[in-house]
Amino acid sequence: MQIYLPIAEVSVDAFLLLGLGGLVGLLSGMFGVGGGFLITPLLFFVGIPPAVAVATSTNQIVASSFSALLAHVKRKTVDFRMGTVLLIGGLIGSSLGLVVFNYLRALGQVDLLVNLFYVVFLGTIGSLMMIESLNAMRRARNPSGPRRARRQHNWVHKLPLKVKFRVSGLYISVVPPLLVGVFVGILSAIMGVGGGFVMVPAMIYLLGMPTKVVIGTSLFQIIFVTSYTTMLHATTNYTVDIVLALLLIVGGVIGAQFGAILGLRLKAEQLRILLALLVLLVCGKLALDLLLQPAELYSISTGGV
Amino acid sequence: MFRLILLLLTLTGAARAETIVLGLSQDSVSITATFDGDDILIFGAVRRDAPAPTEDGDLGVIVTVAGPDQRVSVYRKARRYGIWINTDEVEVDHAPSFYAVATSGPLQEVLRDTSDLREEITIPRAIRSVGATVQDSAAFTQALIRIREADNLYQTQINGVDLEQDTLFMASFALPANLTEGDYVARIFLTRDGRPIDEASTVIPVQKVGLERWLYNLAHSDPLIYGMMSLVLAAAAGWAASAGFAALRR
User: Fold this and answer.
1) First vs last Cα of chain A: how many Å apart?
2) Chain B contact set for A4 (CB, 8 A)
3) Would you give the end-to-end CA distance of chain B in angstroms?
4) What ipTM was reported for this prediction?
């Protein structure tokens, strides 16, 4: 069934979009990731204009993160104080990101910017995850091997403006979480992602937060930053397509439920290797687009989208 | 004086010898939520007050349909630092968002180059780019035509006009799904020996209707409310789905 998207101004198969949403939902349910980093490139592939794809996927992330956050609030695994610091950074970063995004859009280089960000970040994260999970598998085979200490005192603990984060059990400076927030906000505006895939490792390894509060706190930050990014895109570019978003959301929430069930049946290490492979696959496809000579050297863009 | 009047009479007489009577299969095109392209039929007849002036050359009919003009940026990629990026840009000031030409015969038989130039009938003539800063700007307009032809936004149908007994004509155009809104202008030219002898035109409005119209208007006139609505809907959908599944599992 073809459906005409009012903002993207293209006609796309509604079931294809539901399926895309479902697929990404399935993966996010299985792996516990937002899936924004997958949905944006997939929307490029089906012919949604990049500006609309980025703006609309931030809206979709709000939906998929909201129900997850509710569960975490109920379990009291959200550090609101830390979340607020990350959020303030996120809002600053998102505003910066949008300025860069709109500037490059005027220059006709926004596709390049988005693609480069994707290749660099998916490539880095995918490789790190791959190495990490391969190491974990090796450790599982011979448990006598050396283990890294989790909590370390590093330069993060020597900065001024220290604040007590009771839920996380930390007494650290607000500067590093603020910077992490800014960085994630920039990613959110440019890539149309929540940024959990960068924030979660940063919270664990850089800030030294306990794992059990990391997911809930990052969800708290992601919801507000992606909401803010959605509003920025909606008011400056008019590129949020509500029909597209709803189709993705409906597919996504159903997929996520099945993904969660499926995720329980697979081993954690295998899951992570699968996710790493998937991330690298998407990264590889985007990298090839940049490296190989395109069939059509020319591209057109009208003022609107 | 007498000779001037005579000249005027013959001129207007010649212009009136054959005129176009026009019909459309539909007055407007509505873009609904399930819009998947549309077909438009343009038909008509040639009215004559006198026997057909066949000595002036063969009769030809050309029908064009043009969407609203846009300013288009055409980019060309080149290899820089090992990757392919947009390096050159040409602004095309006026390019119709949709353009279709149908003729009743081979182009060189129904239309002379000079007439084409004046009336801007064929696709390359309908596109105007001025003040290009790149040397080979022709390649850019060619690329624009090539890309839009691939999307069915630009169409050339030689022999696309069905001309019956030099009197009845009919042309059908397939409008693709990715149409831009606006007033589409249909022009019909009657030619003898490649020179236009009569011209008629009509406007076909293409508009989003219903929900599509409402959402588009809201997004542009009240972006704040539209954005809020998107967020509330997203949050509600997320919550409803998890609540629904939780209820199912019980």
Assistant:
1) 24
2) 31-36, 177, 212
3) 100
4) 0.74
Residue A63's nearest CA partner among A21, A92, A16, A20 is A21
Query: Is residue B122 domain-shared with residue B85, that is, in the same domain?
Result: yes
Tell me the C-alpha distance between B203 and B183, whole Å: 6
Flag if A291 and B83 touch (Cβ within 8 Å).
yes
Q: Are residues B126 and B233 in the same domain?
A: no
Give residue-wise pLDDT tens across range B177-229.
878 888 888 888 888 887 888 888 888 888 888 787 888 888 888 888 888 88
CA A44 to chain B, closest CA, distance in angstroms equals: 16
d(C-alpha A236, C-alpha A100), whole Å: 13
**Nearest-CB residue to B234 (from A111, A249, A256):** A249
pLDDT in tens, A125-176: 888 888 887 887 777 776 554 545 445 556 666 677 777 777 777 778 788 8
Q: Are residues B221 and B186 part of one domain? A: no
Query: Beta partners for B161?
Result: B171
Quote the CA–CA distance of A15 and A1 in Å, as a whole number: 7
Of A65, A235, A256, which has the smallest distance from its Cβ to B224's Cβ? A235
Q: What are the strands, taking DSSP E only, across chain A? A: 2-4, 11-13, 162-165, 170-173, 298-302
| Residue ranges of domains in chain A | 2-141+152-291
Which token pair is B185? 């202008």
pTM, full prediction: 0.74
The alpha carbons of chain A give a radius of gyration, in whole angstroms, of 19
